Each structure stands twice: as C-alpha cells, then as structure tokens.
C-alpha cells in the first residue's frame, strides 16, 4: 500500500502540473487569435515568429514534464528563428517542428480536460481504497487508476511531441549547412596560414639559399675560401628550410600518426606536454585503423587540450582516453586544473570544435570553476 501511495502521489503531482499547463494553453488561445487576426490583416504578421517561439517554449515545458514522468527522451527539432523579419517568417511557416507543436496543442485542448476532471479521484480514492483494503483486505482500486491516467496522459503527449522525420531531417540539414560553413572558413584560414608560413619561412630561406649558391659559384675561382664559407652557410639554410617544411607538414598531417598510429602519437604528445599524462586506449589498437582525417582530428584535439591544460590549468596531471565505439572514435581529455575554460577567450576550443564539426562530430566541454576540465569528442567513422 505504501508503494501504491508513493506512486499515486507522484502521479498526482504530474497531473496537477499537467492541469496547470492545460489552463495555460486554454488562455493561450487568445494569443493565437490575436496572431491570426494580425496575420490576416498583414500589419500584425510580425507577431507570427514571436508566437511560434512562445509555442516552442510551451511545448518544451510539456516535453520536460512528460520526460520527468516517463524517464524517456523526447528530442526537439527546430530550425533557428533568427535574422530579419522576412527570414523569421519563412522559417516559422516552413519549419516542420511548428506543425508538430500545433498538432500537439490542438490535441491537448481535447484531452487536457481529463486531467482536470480526474484529480478529485485522489481524496475519493483514499477513502474508497481505505475501506476496500482495510475492511475487505483487497487490493486498491482507485489509486492505480490515477497512476494509469498519468501514464496515458504522458504517453499521448510523448507521441504528439516527438519530432517528425521531416523535422529531424530539416534540423540535420540546417546543422550540416552551418558545419559546412565553419569547415569552409576553417579551411580558408588554414590555407592562408600555410601560404603565410611558406612565404615568410621556407620560401624566404630557399631564396636566400639560391642567392648564396650563386655567389659561391661566382666566387669559387677567385676566392675558394669565401666560396666554401658561402656553401657552408647555404647548407645551414637548407637544413633550416627543411625544418620549416617539416613543421609545416606536421601542422597538416603529423607524420608520427603514420609511423606510430594514433595511440603512439598521443603517448608522444603526453610525454612532450610537460604534464604527467596517463593515456588509455580502449579497443583503438584492435582491428583496422580509423580514417586518416579522423585520426588527425583526434590528434589535434588531444594536442590542443593538453596545451591548454599546461598553459592555463595550473595542474601537472591529465588523462587521455581513446575508445573505439560501434559508430566511431571517442576522445576524452581530463585535467585536474583550475577549470573555468571559456571558448570565447581564445583558448583554442573554438578551433577544436570547428575541426570536429567538419567531420560531423560532436564536442562537449565541462569546465566548472575549480576544475576539473573535461573535453569529450565523438568522431563518427566506419572501421
């Protein structure tokens, strides 16, 4: 009986909140009528995107309430309402998520009254079940009905609020469009960096090398000692140019990845980071390797995260986890520093996120003040 009472009390809280939301949606009909009138009259058409935003917030609150009862997950799939009024209007009308929310709201007007009418079952149920169980020794009758009602209400809401395949596809296309724009911007910045490094570094040294070899050739007959000195300087410049080129190549695709693989390359990063880094590999060395682009992205994520930890963290310990999953490669870097990492502060996190997004991956940074800082990256790939 105690378990039934606890579950019924929880169901009652859910139904009370659902009833309160039902009253709120009934009041919201006024907003819908004002918006519809303004849209028909054209002068108030600017209200449409704002009303859609309000509907999204109401639907989001209902999703959270439903999830708190069912324990499941109800995804949101909306296109961003931003930009000038015309763009916002077009998005509000064409977004499949708008239709999903409106469909739920119309249905909610039909079934929400059930939650209001059934709430009096709680005190009645206590009396009836108290007599039924106390005098006759039977199982409770009314209280389980309240729990069942909460299940039905949450089930209907979950089914109606679940995004349609069209909404998920539209959100996916929007995300890929933004990702592609970031990837193009990052690619352009990388090309400019390579061009600048070649122009200011290796190219300048090769030009000086060519001049010294030419001077040495002209001076060889008249002054062999001076020619040998020029050739020696030219050799030094050639070695410096090769060093510049190797550094440039490492910034594009580190050769150590080809030589040692991802795990060996990350261990080398840890050894040269100035931190005590524990590297753990979970299935990464088993079976085929990840694509080169995925390994390079993982390598640069670890390199940047360890650099940030050594530069800003204030701790001498970090750990790196590389894990193979069914759908890709997982990277997790944790340092025991002071935390407080901020992407807007130029700590390299924005570049990391763009590199990961270019491969349709995801990145999450957890860095509360006081630490620790955890960078988690998922890179999809086919093994």
Helical residue percent band: 55-70%
Major sheet details = 5 strands, mixed
Structural class assignment: alpha+beta
Q: Provide the number of structural domains.
A: 3
Alpha plus pi helix count: 11
| Low-confidence regions | none
- Gyration radius, rounded: 32 Å
Strand segment tally:
5
Major sheet strand order = 1-2-3-5-4
Q: Summarize model confidence as the mean pLDDT.
A: 80
Question: What share of residues are in beta strands?
Answer: 5-15%
Order of helices and strands: HHHHHHHHHEHEEHEE
Quick one: overall form?
elongated
Distance N to C terminus: 53 Å
Describe the structure.
By secondary structure, this protein is α+β, with helices and mostly antiparallel strands. It folds into 3 domains: 2-163, no CATH class; 178-252; 255-380, Histidine kinase-like ATPase, C-terminal domain (Heat Shock Protein 90, 2-Layer Sandwich), CATH 3.30.565.10. It has 11 helices and 5 strands. The protein has a 5-stranded mixed β-sheet with strand order 1-2-3-5-4, covered by helices on one side. A hairpin with a 3-residue loop joins strand 2 (317-324) and strand 3 (328-335). Helix 9 (255-271) runs parallel beside helix 10 (292-313). The chain is elongated.
Q: What's this model, at a glance?
A:
With 383 residues, the protein is an alpha+beta fold. The chain folds into three domains: 2-163, no CATH class; 178-252; 255-380, Heat Shock Protein 90 (2-Layer Sandwich).
């Amino acid at each position: 009986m105690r378990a039934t009472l606890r579950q019924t009390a929880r169901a009652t809280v859910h139904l009370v909140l659902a009833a309160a939301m039902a009253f709120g949606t009934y009041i919201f009909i006024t907003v819908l009528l004002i918006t519809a009138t303004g849209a028909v009259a054209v002068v108030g058409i600017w209200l449409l995107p704002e009303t859609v935003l309000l509907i999204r917030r109401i639907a989001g609150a209902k999703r959270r309430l439903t999830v708190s009862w069912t324990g499941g997950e109800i995804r949101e799939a909306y296109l961003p309402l931003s930009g000038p009024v015309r763009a916002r209007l077009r998005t509000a009308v064409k977004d499949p998520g708008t239709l999903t929310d409106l469909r739920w709201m119309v249905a909610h007007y039909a079934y929400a009254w059930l939650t209001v009418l059934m709430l009096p079952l709680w005190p009645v149920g206590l009396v009836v079940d108290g007599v039924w169980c106390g005098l006759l020794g039977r199982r409770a009758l009314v209280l389980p009905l309240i729990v069942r009602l909460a299940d039905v209400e949450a089930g209907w809401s979950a089914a109606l609020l679940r995004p349609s395949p069209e909404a998920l596809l539209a959100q996916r296309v929007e995300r890929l469009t933004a990702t592609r724009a970031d990837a193009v911007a990052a690619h352009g910045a990388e090309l400019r960096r390579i061009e600048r490094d070649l122009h200011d570094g290796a190219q300048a040294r090769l030009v000086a090398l060519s001049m010294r070899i030419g001077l040495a050739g002209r001076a060889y007959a008249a002054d062999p000692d001076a020619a040998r000195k020029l050739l020696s300087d030219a050799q030094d410049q050639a070695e410096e140019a090769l060093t510049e080129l190797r550094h440039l190549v490492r910034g594009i695709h580190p050769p150590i990845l080809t030589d040692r693989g991802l795990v060996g390359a990350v261990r080398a990063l840890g050894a040269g980071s100035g931190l005590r880094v524990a590297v753990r590999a979970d299935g990464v060395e088993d079976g085929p390797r990840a694509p080169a682009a995925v390994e390079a992205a993982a390598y640069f994520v670890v390199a940047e995260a360890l650099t940030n930890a050594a530069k800003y963290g204030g701790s001498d310990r970090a750990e790196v986890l590389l894990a193979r999953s069914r759908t890709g490669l997982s990277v997790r870097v944790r340092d025991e520093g002071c935390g407080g990492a901020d992407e807007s502060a130029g700590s390299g996190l924005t570049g990391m996120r763009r590199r990961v997004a270019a491969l349709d991956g995801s990145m999450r940074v957890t860095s509360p003040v006081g630490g620790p800082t955890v960078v988690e990256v998922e890179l999809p790939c086919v093994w």
